[in-house]
Write a structure and sequence with these properties.
Layout lengths: L12 H10 L5 H8 L5 H8 L1 H16 L13 E13 L2 E12 L7 E2 L2 H6 L4 H11 L4 H7 L4 H4 L3 H20 L8 E11 L2 E10 L4 E9 L6 H11 L9 E4 L3 H11 L4 E4 L1 H9 L7 H12 L3 H16 L3 H8 L7 H4 L4 H7 L3 H13 L9 H16 L11 H10 L3 H7 L1
Parallel strand pairs: 4-7, 7-8
Antiparallel strand pairs: 1-2, 2-3, 4-5, 5-6
Helix pairs in contact: 1-4, 2-4, 3-4, 6-9, 7-9, 9-19, 10-11, 12-15, 13-14, 14-15, 18-19
Length: about 425
């Protein structure tokens, strides 16, 4: 017999509930997601309301005990239906009252109650706050998210302020966990340092690479800039959380004098610094007319492919050529010139040099952070910027891959373990 359907208005909750009771098979994909907590209770509610929750619970119970049979209990199986009773599930700071199915073991299994997986998942406090943060990190603003769940506000009391409060609490937990990470379990060979701007607030972040090529967000500090207070505070915090200050490492930075000074202050003079080539190139050509950008860029990139001694000589020649007409460009080129060739001086192969020659590892993370915070138009204070930065970094970290050339990192480790004085390396280069 052909079945017919009527279109129900969005606010006709009774019609929607009746439909869900009749057509529960439409929820089958949702059941598994809820049970695995991949789909949070708030998402279920925002789509279809309380009736959906009860339908999902019913189907989750069927997955354990099989379909209910009227008149008699199912003959097969060790778990049977045991009626219904009032239950509670969490949404934000409120509990929602629902009717939940009950299951129990047959008498042979001592007749104990059997858990309904979806109900157990929905009972977990804090699940919604965590899910809210995930959604917001995906680029949904607090206001927009409040609109999404607005239809159910009268039922469960969810407001924009409630969403904001939950989000703040969740991001504070993320920040706390990040800043309490122990770092002594990793042998970190490389540390990338760079900052990102949130309105008037500057957040300096550190990302490390271990001997396996895996990347780790190490920590961050908020301040006006990469100044002489913020940077040492960040590095000292890393040491306090287990980063061995005696272990020789390669630091990749954007060229900030404050960064270099802080590295020497916290880790001593026996350290290696690689100047980010992308930052340096942009700075140099920024002092040149646009029609000279291609030529200068090609010359600089070609020099980077040479060994350290020849590369430095080529760029010194270029600086002399620029000096007459473009003295600012020449000065920029000479500033930190030797630090552009640290990885060449170590004799590292091209694939590894490509990754270690720039701060792209942390810059790509910054791109993810900017994507996730693009809807935020007003940064109230530094604490807000730091919370969002931490949440965004940790979320982006989930998709980290090992660096290009990770299988060649043993060469870098060998050089770092060799402990050749920095001054001798520069002379050799």
């Amino acid at each position: 017999m052909k079945r017919t359907y009527e279109v129900a208005g969005r606010s006709d909750k009774r019609a929607i509930a009746e439909f869900m009771k009749r057509e529960g098979q439409f929820l089958l994909p949702m059941v598994e997601l809820v049970e695995r907590t991949e789909l949070a209770i708030d998402e279920v509610i925002q789509v279809m309301g309380r009736a959906t929750i009860e339908a999902v619970l019913e189907m989750s119970a069927e997955g354990v005990a099989g379909p209910k049979q009227s008149g008699k209990a199912r003959e097969e199986g060790s778990t049977v239906w045991y009626g219904r009773q009032p239950g509670l599930v969490y949404l934000s700071e409120r509990k929602i009252r629902i009717e939940r199915p009950r299951l129990r073991e047959r008498n042979g299994g001592q007749g104990g109650e059997v858990e309904v997986p979806a109900y157990a998942a929905m009972r977990r406090p804090g699940a919604m706050a965590d899910r809210m943060l995930e959604i917001l990190m995906a680029g949904v603003s607090t206001r927009k998210y409040g609109q999404v769940i607005g239809d159910m506000a009268d039922t469960v009391g969810v407001s924009k302020s409630s969403v904001s409060r939950e989000t703040i609490e969740a991001s504070e937990r993320v920040l706390k966990d990040l800043m309490e990470r122990r770092l002594d379990e990793w042998d970190l060979l490389v540390i990338y340092l760079d900052g990102i701007q949130f309105g008037a607030h500057h957040v300096l972040a550190a990302v490390g690479v271990d001997t396996d090529g895996k990347k780790h967000v190490l920590g961050m500090r908020e301040g006006a800039s990469e100044n002489t207070e913020v940077t040492p505070a960040l590095l000292q915090d890393l040491v306090e959380r287990g980063l061995d200050p005696e272990r020789r490492r390669l630091f990749v930075i954007d060229g900030s004098k404050a960064l270099r000074k802080a590295i020497a202050q916290v880790f001593g003079q026996d350290h290696l610094v690689q100047r980010c080539r992308n930052h340096k190139l942009r700075n140099i050509v920024g002092h040149l007319p646009k029609d000279q950008h291609p030529q200068a860029t090609a010359a600089i990139r070609a020099a980077w492919k040479l060994d350290a001694k020849d590369g430095v000589q080529k760029l010194e020649q270029l600086a002399r050529w620029l000096e007459r007409d473009h003295p600012s460009a020449a000065a920029s080129l000479r500033e930190g010139l030797h630090e552009m060739f640290t990885i060449n001086r170590l004799g590292l192969p091209p694939r590894l040099r490509k990754c270690l020659g720039t701060t792209n590892v942390i810059d790509s993370t910054h791109s993810g952070v900017r994507q996730k915070t693009r809807r935020v138009t007003h940064w109230k204070n530094g604490a807000m910027a730091l919370r969002w930065a931490a949440a965004s970094f940790v979320e982006t970290e989930k998709n980290y891959r090992r660096i290009v050339g990770f299988d060649q990192l043993w060469m870098l480790k060998a050089h770092l373990d060799d402990r050749q004085p920095v001054a001798e390396m520069k002379m050799a280069g």
